[in-house]
Amino acid sequence: MFVGHEAIALAGRAKTPRISLGTWFLAVQFLDLLWPIFLLLGWEHVRISPGITKLTPLDFYDYPITHSLVGALGWSVAFGVGYRILTRGKGERRGALLLGAGVFSHWILDLVVHTDDLPILVRGPYVGLGLWNVPVAAVSLETVLFALGIFLYLRATRARDAIGRWGFWSLFGLLYVLWLSASFGPPPPDERTLAWVGLLSWLFVPWAWWVDRHRTYLG
Ligand SMILES: [Zn+2]
Fold first, then answer.
1. CA of 212 to the centre of ligand 1 (A)
2. CB count, 10 Å around CB of 49?
3. Burial of 12 by CB count in 10 Å (0-12 exposed, 13-18 middle, 19+ buried)?
4. Which of 35, 173, 31, 172 is nearest to 102 (CA)?
5. Which residues surround ligand 1, an ion (CB under 5 A)?
6. CA–CA gap between residue 11 and residue 31 (Å, rounded)
7. Would the pTM count as exceeding 0.85?
8. Confidence category of residue 45, pLDDT binned at 50, 70, 90
9. How many other β-carbons are positioned within 10 Å of the β-carbon of residue 45?
10. Hey, which residues does 217 pair with through a beta bridge?
11. Residue 136, C-beta contacts closer than 8 angstroms, at least 6 positions apart
């Protein structure tokens, strides 16, 4: 799942006056942002295997640190605690709890689309509802979530200037196009390239923060 995660970020931002959309992006994509780093370090592994699901050509056979249930719970707690420490207690407890839940929402949404490759513990048992094998349903679900997130965010904020308006639409337009091309385009050439390209998704965090700063929160 990809843009479905951003939908949670948009909805979360709409409900939290003091937490930037950038922080929310970091939270909901935290597992996928760590993943390319761990791939490059050789701590986790993926295989390009066209046809393994009808939608994604990736065989996620080894990623327990980022994508096991226990791992996801650990990262969620760490993120919430980290937020509290970095904001030196000024960040409300509610905000820390919501961001932690945002990190964990990634695993729940992945569970819906992944085939049974998500480990509960480090070495299984493996779970996944496999919506990637029903492309129409997978694409519709993510698109509806994405549209809903955008609706909630636009209702809760107003653009102050051109960055707030066009920066927003270019960010979310690009995310949607990237997701569609990753889903229906050719598979990545090799695992290393996949990991390096994956690292580029870090750029969306400051972009979201920047756009959000140019919008007024209405509540
Ligand atoms: Zn993921």
1. 24
2. 14
3. buried
4. 31
5. 32, 110
6. 19
7. yes
8. very high
9. 13
10. 157
11. none
